[in-house]
Amino acid sequence: MTETTVPVTTRKDWSSDQEVRWCPGCGDYSILAAVQFLMPELDVRREDVVFVSGIGCAARFPYYMNTYGMHSIHGRAAAIATGLAMARPELKVFVVGGDGDMLSIGGNHLIHVLRRNIDVTVLMFNNQIYGLTKGQYSPTSEVGKVTKSSPYGSIETPFNPISVALGAEATFVARTHDMDRQHMMEVFRRAYEHRGAAFVEIYQNCNVFNDGAFEPLTGKANRDDMIIPLVHGQPIRFGADQEKGVAMGTDGRLRIVDVAKAGADNILVHDEQHDRGLGFMLSRLAKGPHEPTPIGVFRAVQYPEYGEEVGRQIATAQERNGPGDLAALLRSGATWRVD
Amino acid sequence: MADTAARTDPKQIERVIIRFAGDSGDGMQLVGDQFTSASALLGNDLVTLPEYPAEIRAPAGTLAGVSAFQIHISDHDITTPGDAPNVLVAMNPAALRAELGRLEPHGTVIVNVDTFEERNLAKAGYESNPLTDGALKGYTVFEVPMTSLTRQACEPLGVKPRDAERSKNFFALGLVSFMYTRPEAPTIEWIKAKFASKEKVRDANLAAFHAGHAFGETAELFDHVYEVAPAEQHPGEYTNINGNTALAWGLIAASRLARMPLFLGSYPITPASDILHELAKQKHFGIRTLQAEDEIAGIGAALGAAYGGHLAVTTTSGPGVALKAETIGLAISLELPLLIIDIQRGGPSTGLPTKTEQADLLLAMYGHHGESPLPILAPYSPAHCFDTAIEAARIALEYRTPVMLLSDGYLANGAEPWLIPDVDTLPDIAIEFATAPNHTDADGNPAFWPYQRDPETLARPLALPGTPGLEHRIGGLEKDEAGHVSYVPEVHEQMVHVRAAKIAGIARDIPPVVIRGDAEDAEILVVGWGSTWGAISGGVDRVRALGHRVAQVHLTHLNPFPANLGDVLRAQRRILVPEMNLGQLARLLRAEYLVDARSVTKVKGLPFTAGELEVAILGALDD
Known about the structure:
The complex is a heterodimer of chains A (339) and B (623). With 339 residues, chain A is an alpha/beta fold. Chain A folds into two domains: 11-234 and 270-306, Thiamin diphosphate (ThDP)-binding fold, Pyr/PP domains (Rossmann fold), CATH 3.40.50.970; 237-269, no CATH class. Chain A has helices spanning 28-38, 77-87, 99-105, 107-116, 161-167, 181-193, 215-218, 223-226, 259-262, 278-283, 306-321, 326-329; strands at 49-53, 68-71, 92-98, 120-126, 172-177, 198-203, 227-230, 237-238, 244-248, 254-258, 293-300, 335-338. Chain A has an eight-stranded mixed β-sheet, sandwiched between helices. In chain A, strands 8-9-10 form a three-stranded antiparallel β-sheet. In chain A, helix 1 (28-38) packs across helix 6 and helix 3 crosses helix 4 (107-116). The termini of chain A are far apart. Chain B has 623 residues and is an alpha/beta fold. Chain B folds into three domains: 4-228, Pyruvate-ferredoxin Oxidoreductase, domain 3; 239-425, Rossmann fold (3-Layer(aba) Sandwich), CATH 3.40.50.970; 516-622, Rossmann fold (3-Layer(aba) Sandwich), CATH 3.40.50. Helix content of chain B is 36%, strand content 20%. In chain B, the strands form six sheets. In chain B, strands 11-10-12-13-15-14-23 form a seven-stranded mixed β-sheet, with helices on both faces. A six-stranded mixed β-sheet of chain B has the order 3-4-2-5-6-7, with helices on both faces. In chain B, strands 20-22-21-24-25 form a five-stranded mixed β-sheet, sandwiched between helices. In chain B, helix 7 (185-194) runs antiparallel to helix 8 and helix 11 (295-307) packs parallel to helix 12 (318-334). The longest helix of chain B has 20 residues, at 199-218.
């Protein structure tokens, strides 16, 4: 007899027996908590969940989840998850890693897992620094960043992870931050429920090597004026009294405007299913986490999921040719008999 | 309709080596393949050697663009594509110039005389016409206007002359088929099927093929035709197979025998891509193939699928193995079954991408970080790729380890007749996955320890994601038996030893080496591995025919070596190791067994010939 209902669980059931070993005060703790709190709310069994990670602080994540998990090698988690999700489409596969892991050494795999629309949930912890190797600049570090490997300041243009994901044709793209558990849980839930590749950037504080990188946004006192929540179907407004908004000018650019001056009707209404670049424009609104920055779901659209397409091709081939017959295969070329 | 029509009685010959050569756009591989099929259907034993340039289309008419296909057909068992061709079909001056040196003295040359005009001669670097300046003295030369006759044959079909010329390779095929009394019917059927969707091309090719055949019959150029009788073979059903197809089919068979779906993660690379093509085609076997974004993703996805319980494979050539090295280390650390298939080619770097070499043995053996042994296997002939794929899968699954399979460009593209095995006689290689806890923790609760090993094989239990109650984490960090990350010095040292012992222990589970030739009192032992088997066997047989006592050992298992190899080697007076590298197996044998293994090497991108090895063995006997 197969059980059809998922057993009731609590956060404790989803926590492994391993002692969590991130630096005290690390933003990773709150992300782990958000995931562990969320899992009991999802209609899923522990044995059907797999966390796959690469290398880095964030990549220790699977060890702390009482599910199946693989801590792999630097940058390759998305590739490994691709094979696992293709082989076992019924599993729920998460890919967890940092900005260096996913956008530097693993950049190629990230864009391709998104482009193919593999059914995985990608959680990218962005702390704009290399933590595990003790403080080098990362592909998301800002220009001028002084680190051990850039003593005169970084001269590299950083990636905008949301723009990268959208450019890679990701069908679900969202951003959240480590100071807001409710928002994280809501975004993670949406990402989990999305059929296909879901990409979530999480602004995460590294209190040892890059402390306060997102403080201008995520500090309690700053949030109202600096965080622009994106809600599907709603005008994009923010501020303590919702007095600010995002509007599109006649030049086609997005601008932050005073709602009273611009008129409430002229405030852009967010459409996460918009397929002509609105999400991309929103991803370019802030030049960095020192300007008002949108969080939430930038894009959520349905396209064929890779594993389903693979299954469909196999089913079609089997309808046409019957299930594989090994003896017949070996005779599929010209054959002859010797008596 | 009679299949063959000859004016005079055919002359019986035991064997013949024919080399088709032309521009890479001339379709030489295509006609070579079809001549092979027709010969196979006739029951000849055969071995082929396709050789083509790395460039898809080098400038037409130049030496760089010459593509050739050699076939050795025989009425008895043969093992090599032959030393020197007896017949050279040269479609243009460049082909003649590039290939003439290989032809046997007094051999036969058939040229497409239409192409021997000033421009083509200049492109080939001829200052004067070799057909008229005496350069071909001593050869039997047939000048056939293949282009113009093909054009004429196609004229009634309304095919444009330029298009018609493209069919001249079929004219050549028709002519050579006539000369060697190949049945016409299979080739005609094949042309009809192959070009079914392009009516004009189909008709032009058929017309050209018939015209070539008819030309042979009527032109009175040839005194007589030749007949190569069927070879004596074991009774049964045969097909003609190349190494890459045999490997792909072997993988499909292995997945059936393991009762696991097959997964291939691969990035296109010559000469391995045909395995990806073949498996992508056989989707009805439930095979999943991923054309990955790079070599690393190819093996990464395969490793992910292995973790999910599929029989997982990645295919590549040498440069790709280098890129996969880090993931191979991870697979060794995770102890997951995985097949890494390296179709070796000339290296380093891009090297000779379409030519053969066996210089990746030390890469397979040592090309990863840390103490990281893995089993290595090498097939010895195209058909043997089938069995070796199954054996590699058996070892990978049984011992939960990545396995390296070393084929090469010569095996990949070379073909031979294959006695189709009865699938019911193939071994069962299925393994059991963990379904229940295997340990009780300190609190008395059931637990699953992913590295608690089988005491005999040292294999760890595999619990697939989706198995309730066995949730656990694995990773590339060092771990203890419970699977927990451990930096304890003694734990690391113990795990290094255990991983090594697991691989070494496979020696108990593989067949001992068998000596071919003179098992007792041999003057010399010749040890080989991989695709050199045919040439070594030929060379050994020739030296034995001269009255010498020669023993031969050919290794399929290269790590670990068969358990009796040391005793076999130490009992020999002389050991000679022919390899298409600078002595990699010889180095391993010397290191492992402290024996005086001598190398004979060839690194030209070409296989050894039996003649070369005959000379090498005789030379070694003088030492």
